[in-house]
Amino acid sequence: MKEIQDKIDFNNKVNTKISTLEAELEVLQDKMPNKDLCFLSAVEQAKLIRTKSISAQELIRAHLDQIEKYNPVLNAIVTLTADSAMADAYAADQALEQGEKLGVLHGLPVAHKDLFLTKGVRTTFGSLAYKDFVPEVDSLPVERLKKAGGISLGKTNTPEFGAGSQTFNAVFGSTPNPYDLTKTCGGSSGGGAVALASGMVAIADGTDLGGSLRNPASFCNLVGIRPSVGRVPSWPESLGWYTMSVAGPMARTVQDLALAMAAMSGPDDRSPISLEAPGEMFLNPLERSFKGCKIAFSANLGGLPVEKEVAKVLESTRSVFEELGCEIINDEPDISEADEIFMLWRAWRTELRITPLLKEHRSEIKDTVIWNAEQGLSITGPQLVRAEAKRTELYLRMRDFFKKYEFLVLPVSQVAPFSIDQEYPQEINGIKMNTYIDWQKSCYHISALGNPAISVPAGFTSDQLPVGIQIVGRHHDDFGILQLAYAFEQRTHFAQRRPPMCQS
Predict the structure, then answer these.
(1) Residue 501: how many CB atoms within 10 A of its CB?
(2) Rounded to two decimals, what is the model's pTM?
(3) What average pLDDT does the structure give for the chain?
(4) In angstroms, how far is CA 503 from the centroid of its own chain?
């Protein structure tokens, strides 16, 4: 009889506990509507799933609702995979229940730039020439995000072949800035940036040749990193030894970015330039003291034109670094060769990629891409050899520069977000921009160095448009720039601001 009573008592306790948990969950859900849940950091969302405070299915459903609400206006996600996402979320919940080993992004909603191959899911490269292309494999960055437990919600918008920092193409149209729908979100990873800024995903991937992760991060109040070459390896890749373009993540916070780097980094023998350090290094604590840390502070990287509003935000950050204990010195490296190096290698790569398409698809490809490809046709072997020799000289000079300083701080972009109706700024401070990428030199000159660089929210213009600052670190010191960006973020809290359209 006592045995029966004990069982009854135990069952009553269990039922009471279940009722309590259900009540707590209802309170949580009442306090946290979908829009708030979607703006929790990726780290916080991951904790909610692991503690079973919310299921992966609930989290994905909330983000799909967010997409339904905002994407018709923002056009950030151009191919939605809602059904497969919900199926993957169910599988993620089952894996948690069964005690399986979980990846660092378990159950988190992610999206992939439409330059990355996605098995069984349309990949257009933003070009009419590929409007119906469906790959048979995943690109390595996509593969790694999935392996880490990320749940793909689809593909994000990009300019045609990723050319330029204005996200528009003839397949899907333009993606506006959620902070001001009349302005550009930047690019070329613009769709991913807007999806993040509006709470549609927790993590977004992208690529960075001349600023394509850093620029949209700056324009959309996000964190975006250009990792060291080989830190996030790429495959399949026709140019396995090419070092100018890299893959990497964007996020709303520095901790989230580090989490994504943990998932995406690490060696892979399919890439001949992949670095050996494991991705787990990015799970280490980001806190550190910066007392006595020497920072070179450059307002314009050797005389580049910078809009007054951008310069004002950059200057305001000086006191933040001083509060952290840093020693700020106005200085900048001599990188006068960077422009030639970048432009030659960019044109060479574009020619290799685009010229084979021109015979059948020339009328479907935008003029600026054709111009860049035709530039590549005129490049000679001696030009490339000299450029590479200059790049080696530049590397050694930067090595000496970073013996004096641990970091270099400068603008991400020379301009604030501009009109979405403009393909690119025609002038800055009265200085004419001759090409569609001239206004990106503060980014692409850094690309030529090979050093890791990060964009972190730094403030807003008088029109309330986001502005980021760029932190450049020593060779291969990706973790170091994350640490400084984290310390800056903790002091300023700019990353906590949402776009006005997402506050109601």
Answers:
(1) 16
(2) 0.93
(3) 94
(4) 23
Catalytic residues: 113, 188, 212
pLDDT for res 32: 56
C-alpha to C-alpha distances, 404 to 138, 328, 336, 412, 449, nearest whole angstrom? 42, 12, 19, 22, 17
DSSP letter for each residue of 468-500: EEEEEESTT-HHHHHHHHHHHHHHH-GGGPPPG
Please provide residue 501's backbone torsions phi and psi, each rounded to the nearest 5 degrees: -70, -15
What span, in angstroms and rounded, lies between the C-alpha atoms of 93 and 72?
29
Q: Name the residue among 147, 139, 271 with its Cα closest to residue 207.
A: 139
Opening angle at CA 155, ends 114 and 159, nearest 5: 35
Q: H-helix or E-strand containing 167? A: none
Rounded to an integer, the average pLDDT of 159-163 is 97
Confidence of residue 30 (pLDDT cuts 50, 70, 90): very low
Q: Residue 362 corresponds to which tokens in the numbers above?
A: 């020339």
Question: Is the Cβ–Cβ distance between 52 and 96 less than 8 Å?
Answer: yes
Going by C-alpha positions, the residue among 213, 469, 477 that lies closest to residue 321 is 469
Structural tokens at position 451: 């050093």
Report pLDDT digits (tens) over 38-55: 999 999 999 999 999 999
pLDDT of 408 higher than 50: yes
Q: Which two tokens mark 88?
A: 């993957």
Task: Report DSSP state, residue 84.
Answer: H
| CA separation for the pair 301, 446 (Å, rounded) | 10
Q: Please, what is the Cα angle at 419 between 70 and 370, to 5 degrees?
A: 100
Please name which of 300, 293, 192, 294 lies closest in space to residue 251, comparing C-alpha atoms. 192
Start-to-end CA distance of the chain, whole Å, equals: 59
3-state secondary structure of 228: coil
Calpha distance 479→483 (Å, rounded): 6
102-149 pLDDT tens trace: 999 999 999 999 999 999 999 999 999 999 999 999 999 999 999 999
pLDDT band at 447 (very low <50, low <70, confident <90, very high): very high
Q: Identify the residue whose tokens are 């006191």.
A: 319
SS3 116: coil
Nearest CA among 76, 113, 108 for reference residue 206: 113
Query: Using omega within 30 degrees of 0 as the cis cutoff, is the peptide bond preceding 336 cis?
Result: no
- Superfamily (CATH) of domain 32-502: Amidase signature (AS) domain (3.90.1300.10)
402, two tokens? 């970073």
297 in Cβ contact with 318 (< 8 Å)? yes
Chain segment 74-86, per-residue pLDDT in tens: 999 999 999 999 9
pLDDT value of residue 23? 46
What are the E-state strand segments in 53-189? 77-80, 109-113, 151-156, 168-169, 173-174, 176-177, 180-184
Instruction: Give residues with Cβ within 8 angstroms of 305, minimum separation 6.
Output: 414, 428, 429, 430, 431
